[in-house]
Amino acid sequence: MPETMPLEEYKELTKDLPFVQPLGECCGKPLMETVHIEPLEGRNTLAVERTCILKCSGCGKEYLSKWD
Q1: Which helix (H) or strand (E) holds 30?
Q2: pLDDT at residue number 3
Q3: Ramachandran assignment for 17, one of left (phi > 0), alpha (psi -120 to 50 degrees), beta (any other)
Q4: CA distance linking residue 9 with residue 42, whole number of Å
Q5: How far is 20 from 42, CA to CA, in rounded Å?
Q6: Whole-angstrom Cα distance, residue 53 to residue 38?
Q7: How many angstroms separate the Cα of 27 from the Cα of each of 33, 36, 58, 59?
Q8: How many C-alpha atoms does 14 have within 13 Å on its Cβ side?
Q9: What share of the chain is helix, strand, coil (3-state, %, to 5)?
Q10: 66 and 20 Cβ atoms separated by less than 8 Å
Q11: CA-CA distance, 44 to 42, in Å (whole number)?
Q12: Distance separating alpha carbons of residues 24 and 42, to the nearest angstrom
């Protein structure tokens, strides 16, 4: 289950992560492990395009991706 955190902490964590398309690959393996999902924190769920942090199961490298 992905961890929850405040929005500001999430933004700080993701500012230097490389972006990858959903279902992207790293080390020849699909990036399927979702570590964090961008929190909504009172924002309109229909107006916010959320992101998530994915982790490679091979090397442990983290990426930023679209959540939907």
Answers
A1: strand 29-30
A2: 60
A3: beta
A4: 16
A5: 26
A6: 8
A7: 14, 21, 6, 7
A8: 24
A9: 10, 30, 55
A10: no
A11: 7
A12: 30
Q: Which tokens go with 26?
A: 């790293």
Amino acid letter at 34? Answer: T
* Residues in a beta bridge with 53: 36, 64
Per-residue pLDDT tens digits for 3-58? 678 889 999 999 999 999 887 888 887 777 888 999 988 777 777 788 999 998 88
- Domain layout of the chain by residue ranges: 1-52
Which conformational region is residue 8 in: left (phi greater than 0), alpha (psi within -120 to 50 degrees), or beta?
alpha
Cα–Cα distances in Å, from 24 out to 16, 41, 55?
A: 18, 27, 11
